[in-house]
Design goal:
- The chain has a single domain, classed as Thiolase/Chalcone synthase (Peroxisomal Thiolase, Chain A, domain 1, 3-Layer(aba) Sandwich), CATH 3.40.47.10.
- The chain is globular.
- The protein starts with 6 loop residues before the first strand and ends with a strand.
- It has 494 residues and is an alpha/beta fold.
- Strands 1, 4, 5, 6, 7, 8, 9, 10, 11 and 12 form a 10-stranded mixed sheet that branches.
- The longest helix has 22 residues.
- 40% of the residues lie in helices and 18% in strands.
Length: 494
Amino acid sequence: MQIAAHVGISGFAAAVPPYRVSLEAWSRWRGADADKTRAVVGEAFRVAGPGQSVYTLAADAAMALIRQHGIDPRQVGYLAVGTESSTDNATSAALVVRGMLDAALLAEGLPALARDVEVPEFKQACIGGLYALKGALRYVALEGAGRVAIVVAADLAEYALGSSGEPTQGAGAVAMLVQAQPRLLALDLQRAASASRYRALDFRKPFSRYVGQAPSDDGRPRDFPMFNGKYSTACYVDETLASLQAQAVGGGLRQGERAAWLHSLAAVFMHRPYHRMPVAAWSMAYVFALGQDAPHAAAAQAQLAALAGAAGVPLDAVQAEMASEPDLLGPALGGTLVEDAYPLTTQLVKALRETPLYREVVDDKMVLGSGVTRQLGNLYCASLPAWLAAGLEEAAQRGTALDGRDLLLVGYGSGDASEVLPAQVVPGWQAAALRTGWPAALAGAVDLTQAQYEALHEGHAAEGLAAPVPRGFAVERIGQAPHERGVELYRWHG
C-alpha cells in the first residue's frame, strides 16, 4: 500500500550502559528456572551505573546520531524526548538534552543547535517515544521545510528486588533522525491509529510513592513502579486490539482482508516489556482479524472454525466474545483484577501455535532484531525503537530484501494507550540501516556479580566494579545547595 506523505526515519543510533546482568546468573541468584526465564523474558538486561542517568543516555544517543549520520546541527528544528524517567516536573528532558548537546558540539568544534529548536518532552508510560516520533513527523510534514527533527526515546526501567518485574529491567536510549524524503522508512500518519482508556490500577508511578524512595548515593532518584502483572498484561492486549481495530477501519482495509494484510507484512515491531508479551498480543491480534474477516471471507471463516474446533470452543461463543467490549476498570476498582479479557479467544491462540500458520504470521514477523532485544531488557519508551532499529540493521547485514515492503509499528503505554503506525521500507535503505551501530553500542559489556548488581540497584557503590573507559556524557554532580538543588551538572568525555 503506497504511503502518501513521504516523511519518515533516515537513521537510528543507540546508547546503553555497559553494566549487564545475565538472566542465567540472575536465575541462580533468585532460585528461578533459567530455561523458563530465558524463554519468557530474554537473555540479559542493562543497569545504569555511577554517573549515568536518563539524560546522559539520551544525550549519548543523540550525539551518536549526529555523528553517525552526518547531521548538520543547524538544520535541526525539532528535538523531542519520550521518557517516563525524567526527574524535573517543569523542565523538558529535551531542553536538558539540548543544553548537553550544545556544550559537547562546541567542544568538538561543531556548531551548536539553532536557537529556534522546539524542545518538547512526551510522557505516557512506554508509548512516549512513539508520541514523540509522531510529533516530529507532523513538524517535518507541516512546518519544518528544509529542517530535520531528532527524536530520542530513553528510559531507566527499574523494579524492586524480588518483585516479578525484576528480571524485566533495562536501561538505554535510541535516537531517530526524522525528515522529508527519508532514507530508511516512510511512515504513514494518514493510516495511523490510536486507542486509549484509563485503567487506574495498571502500571503507575504515583508521586506520593516516588518521593518516599531514597535516592542513590550520588543523588539520582530511584523510581520503582507499582503494577499488577496479569492485569497489566490484559490491559496491554485489550488496548493493542483496540488500536489495530481502529487502524483497520481508518486505514482503508476492506472487510474480509484484515488477516490477509497482517499476513502480508514483512515484519512487525511492538512495545516489548519482555520477550513473550508482544508475541502473545500479536497472536491474539491475528486471531481477532480472522474473526472480523469471517463474516465476509470464506477462507477466514474456515480458519477460525478449524481453530475453534481444535481448541474445543464453540465458534459462536468465541465470535460473541470478540464482539464484546470487556470492562477491565470496573471490576478492578471493586477488588477483582481481570487477568484475561478474552479467555475463549486465548484458547484459539493456543491452537494456532500448533499449526504451520503460526510460524508464518507470528514467528517470521517478529524475528528480525530479536537477538539484540533479548540482551537489553525492557527499555520502556525506547523498547519499540530499539527493536525496530535492531531489526532493520540485522536485515541489512543479512541482505534481506525489504525494498518497498510494509512494516507495522505497534506502541503501547500502560494506563493505557496504544498506537499503530504503518511503515514502508524505502529503496536504498541498507546504507542508513548499517550506520545504526548496535554492535558498538553493546560492546564492552561489564557483567555484574550479584553483590555488584544489588549495590548499584540500591544506589550504592559496587565493590570491585571495573570502570569502563570514560566516554560520552556523565553526571559530574547533582546540586545540593538551595540555588541548584536537584540539578544534574554534566561532563563530556568525547
